Amino acid sequence: MPDRSTRPAVGSLDDEDYPAYTMGRAAEMLGVTPAFLRALGENRLITPLRSEGGHRRYSRYQLRIAARARALVDEGTHVEAACRIIILEDQLEEAQRINEQLRTRDTAS
């Protein structure tokens, strides 16, 4: 029986940031190669966590981002450009969210 202290807490199964997937499993789930996932890391789109043995581990959140990149690549966008597009889209969304908060705060005053 495995030591309970090395098993993930039940709550971590619901945590979308928990690094639950190995590179091989992540690639299989997304229908991509491990090289594609490495390219996403090299282009700073996602940074997988590393296991104690140094293996890449991906979260569900990271897999959703990788799926966005795959969709762009499937449409003919180069992986480097796909990564940059997603980064910029996310930055724009965050800026719009902050602007809306500031507008709401200013109108409430």
TrEMBL record:
Domain HTH merR-type positions: 20-88
Pfam name, any one: MerR_1
Listed InterPro entries: DNA-bd_dom_put_sf, MerR-type_HTH_dom
Protein name from the UniProt record: MerR family transcriptional regulator
Superkingdom of the source species: Bacteria
Upper taxonomic lineage: Bacteria, Bacillati, Actinomycetota, Actinomycetes, Kitasatosporales
